[in-house]
Amino acid sequence: MKRLFLTLTFTTFYLATYSQIFTQLKAEKALQNYRDNLATLRKEHTNGRTLPDVKFMFFGMGDRLKMIYRDGNLINAKTGKALRRWKVKTAIIVPSEYLVHLELENGKAVDIQEDTQGVYIYENGMQVIMAESRLSLPSFSDRKYSLILKVLLHEILINVNEGLPLANFLVYQKPTYRDAAMMTMVLKKTDNINLLTNWVINLKEPYDRSREGSPEVDNLGQALYIISMVSDSKHPLIEKILEEAEGYKNSDYIEGKTSDNFHPVYQTKWIKYGLKSLGISDNYKIPLMYDNYSPVFWLDYKIQNVGGRQFDEVTSLNSPYLTWAEDHFYSQKRGIVSLSDYPLTWESDSKTANYAGMDVIGQGYVQGKICATHAWHAAEMFLVLVEQK
After folding, report:
1. Among 104, 132, 160, which residue terminates a domain?
2. Residue 122 is part of which domain span?
3. pLDDT above 70 covers what percent of the chain?
4. Are the C-beta atoms of 295 and 321 separated by less than 8 Å?
5. Residue 80: phi, psi to the nearest 5?
6. Alpha carbon separation from 318 to 217, 268, 298, 312, 372 (Å, rounded)
7. 141 is a domain residue
8. How confident is the model at residue 11, as a pLDDT?
9. Torsion angles phi and psi, residue 246, rounded to 5
10. What is the DSSP string of 28-69?
11. In this predicted model, what pLDDT tens digit does every residue of 324-346 receive, in sequence order?
12. Averaged pLDDT, 103-132
């Protein structure tokens, strides 16, 4: 009780000193700047995708409460229950500012905004704390696509849920190592890797078994790489991974199933890179054969690649992270860009997703078998665009 009293006393003092951050004009200008950044990207990547026409914004990056603004409501994303309601005249969603600016029917204004400290509602000269925890949210001001990078980081952080790196927290319940490996790379670059420390330290299985419980061999290298982000070669899972890899050895490389197909080049690249990241030597050699997943791994070993047919348009639409990874490998620009302001990333028609979870956003996503945002897609886009100054 004493703690509650102290909190309320502090909050009341803070609220008394608050003045509105955004005016409608300022919000509109910020949105236009972001749209200009998007327009530049769309000129370079001419392939686009129209997502269901639902105006919404996620709040609750990292370990914060997951919330959604939609149609005058701030909703608990897990329960679907409204936390706050407003009678809205106009709503301006500015993804790059992590902001929704509302002009109400009564003539007043409300800001919902997320920053490095938390998620806040600014209304009637008061600040309401909806969630608080520390995050690193760089401005990327020296990058060509600075405002887009801010949104892509948001679309990764929003899918860190209760310490787990999920591709999409609404349609997936458990992490996959493939998504998590690319997420950890971005979290490391942006000083947010601490969000996953407990998960990584407690990893016990060499496979995520996300596809009907079957092992996928690329998981071995991905798990090693993920471990290297927060731990070292003494992690107890490493020995088990090395034993598993021996069971898939074919001469001097590894070979097994990934996404229901054999991808020995991709799998061997991952095991070598994971070991290298931990400072462990290996004797594996990347086989010189065609593997359409070879360019999906762009982090190293680029010369060990036999070129061939690239991902087709259907794959690019449904699994856009594959084409963006391929772009990174070949320095090309086939990756598809969202035609919406937000979200920028998605996945569709996945066999392992429960699209009913998107009902809290809108039936268009459920019926279209689309989830948005998508952390692997966001990570691949981020890691391409962050290189452009």
Report:
1. 132
2. 2-132
3. 95
4. no
5. 80, 0
6. 23, 26, 20, 10, 12
7. no
8. 36
9. -60, -35
10. HHHHHHHHHHHHHHHHHS--EEPPP---EEEE--TTSPPEEE
11. 999 999 999 999 999 999 999 99
12. 96
Question: Whose CA is closest to 296, among 278, 318, 270, 275?
Answer: 270
- What's the structural domain count of the chain? 2
Residues present in the chain in total: 389
At residue 117, the pLDDT reads 97
> pLDDT band at residue 14, thresholds of 50, 70 and 90?
very low
Report the pLDDT value the prediction gives residue 212, as an integer from 0 to 100: 83
Q: Which helix (H) or strand (E) holds 279?
A: none
Residue 167 main-chain phi, psi, to 5 deg: -65, -45
**Could you tell me if 264 and 365 lie in one domain?**
yes
Entry pTM: 0.94
Q: Is residue 108 located within the same domain as residue 170?
A: no
Whether 326 maps to a domain, the answer reads yes
**Secondary structure (3-state) at 117:** coil
Strands (E) located in 77-228: 82-85, 88-94, 99-104, 109-114, 118-123, 126-132, 160-161, 164-165
Q: Are residues 45 and 153 in the same domain?
A: no
d(CA 224, CA 47): 35
| pLDDT confidence of residue 9 | 31
Asked whether 78 and 367 are in contact (CB, 8 A), the reply is no
Q: Rounded CA gap, 92 and 33, in Å?
A: 13
Q: Identify any residues that bridge with 84 across adjacent strands, giving them in sequence order.
A: 74
Question: Dihedral sign, CA of 45, 48, 54, 60?
Answer: negative
Residue 221 lies in a domain: yes
- Per residue in 350-378, pLDDT (tens digit) is 999 999 999 999 999 999 999 999 999 99
Q: How do strand 164-165 and strand 126-132 relate by DSSP bridges? A: unpaired
